[in-house]
Amino acid sequence: MISSMATGRVHGVQRVLAKLDSSLKAGNYYEAHQMYRTLYFRYLAQKKYTDLLDLLFDGAIVLLQHNQQASGADLAILLVAVLSKSGAVVSDEYVLEKLPKLFSLIKPDVPEREVFLMNALQWSCSGSQEHRTGHPELHKNIAQIFWKERNFAMARHHFLYSTDGFGCASLLVEIHKMRGYAAEVDLFIAQAVLQYLCLQNMSTAQAAFHCYTSQHPNIKRGPPYILPLLNFIWFLLKAVERAAVDLTVNTIWSSFSLLRDGVEVPPSTLGCSRMGIM
């Protein structure tokens, strides 16, 4: 009896797979989407997580590439749900490849895109006390996608939660050259460095500072720098590196506030309003 039931389930899945294949070949993507969802529930009930993940990823790619945005995004969201339900270990396969690939194929104006990203980041930090806001490599890949889309505010946001200080600095140089005031050249990197420090990300703060000050054509090599704020940031990084100061949000921002009060702040409010960050 048990054997016959199992055989029946296998045949049932095979029939749905055959119908799915026919729907895809005929270009009937609505029906194909329904077949994918049917298989999703069957595989999930049987706990065939590996087969299900492969099915959903391939299906989402096919639908998105054929401009079936809502259906493809739906399968992408289901894929992340399976990763969570199955207790899948966070791996490079998904963090570096599959999740960024799906995100890049979902168009920016699709509402489900934000849901997919939020769920993907939440899964990527599962079981980790260190990456509570999402895996830094996933943030990095998402930042690069936003950058290509010219969504500078979101690209900057995700770079701040990554460990790619060089990428963040390169982005900031581009933003400042395109949209910033000349007098804001130091403020762009100062704000980013202070935010990295607030996130307890010392090494990335250092990388971003050194990359920005060496790449930006309007900054003469230092230290010392001509601009006082850059010297302050350089000394702050040295002090934090040597554990000479307590690395807390209050300490960092109070230090910055004291210096900021002594300099003239341009009308774009620390270079943020024109970037769409504030």
UniProtKB/TrEMBL annotation:
**UniProt main location, coarse:** cytoplasm
Q: What is the annotated localization of this protein? A: Cytoplasm, Cytosol
Taxonomically, the superkingdom here is: Eukaryota
Q: Which Pfam families match?
A: GET4
Report TM segments.
Answer: none
Asked if Cytoplasm is a keyword of the record, the answer is yes
Name the UniProt key words of this record, in alphabetical order.
Answer: Cytoplasm, Transport
Cite the InterPro entries for this sequence: GET4, TPR-like_helical_dom_sf
Q: Which GO terms describe its biological process?
A: protein insertion into ER membrane
Q: List the Gene3D superfamilies.
A: Tetratricopeptide repeat domain
- Gene Ontology CC terms: BAT3 complex
Q: Which family does it belong to?
A: Belongs to the GET4 family.
* Protein name as annotated: Golgi to ER traffic protein 4 homolog
Q: Which organism is it from?
A: Timema monikensis
